[in-house]
Design a protein that fits this description.
single chain, about 180 residues, alpha+beta, Peptide Methionine Sulfoxide Reductase, Chain A, six-stranded mixed β-sheet, two-stranded antiparallel sheet, 8 helices, about 40% helix
């Protein structure tokens, strides 16, 4: 669906970088009101980058997901809440065992309202005392988003066993359980 068609249908975009994009699709994909979740690259200076280029750390891009959603069914605030619960927002060097600049966390806002809500949610998380280190997730204006190669799309559906092993081995699931599910 084109962005003009999306706007005509009342749909909006949300873009989040949470480390490996494989691990960021499924948490959003199953919610009512989420129309699509696309793995891709954003935030950098190279048009239409490849996975290999992004992983090299020379493009400025991060792995991210772009979510097309219906705000009448799921709010941006709910998407922010889902996002925070998938990441270690205190890690400036990547996420879990994915290290380097292409795996840092960020919220890319598409409107002033999204920026305001993202800033408020970050401040609320920092004030909560849930983490003993500063929240380093950046909040940045959305720019061009480049969908990743087809084999990266919907990885959790295409390779469910590999996906589950990867999440577990990376430390993501243990971190989520320790910091979000236990409280």
């Amino acid at each position: 669906m084109t962005s003009e068609a999306s706007q005509g249908a009342g749909l909006e975009l949300a873009t989040f970088a949470g480390g490996c994009f494989w691990c960021m699709v499924k948490p959003f994909d199953t919610w009512p009101g989420v129309v699509s979740v696309t793995s891709g690259y954003t935030g950098g200076h190279v048009p239409n980058p490849t996975y290999e280029q992004v992983c090299s750390g020379t493009t400025g891009h991060v792995e991210a997901v772009q979510i097309q959603y219906d705000p009448r069914q799921i709010s941006y605030q709910q998407l922010l809440d889902i996002f925070w619960r998938q990441i270690d927002p205190t890690d400036p060097g990547g996420q879990f065992y994915d290290r380097g600049p292409s795996y840092k966390t960020a919220i890319f806002y598409h409107s002033e309202e999204q920026r305001r809500l993202a800033e408020a949610s970050k401040a609320q998380l920092e004030a909560s005392g849930r983490f003993d280190k500063p929240i380093v997730t950046e909040i940045l204006p959305a720019g061009p988003f480049y969908p990743a190669e087809a084999y990266h799309q919907d990885f959790y559906r295409k390779q469910p066993l590999h996906y589950e092993r990867y999440r577990r081995a990376s430390g993501r699931d243990a971190f989520i359980a320790a910091h979000w599910e236990q409280r």
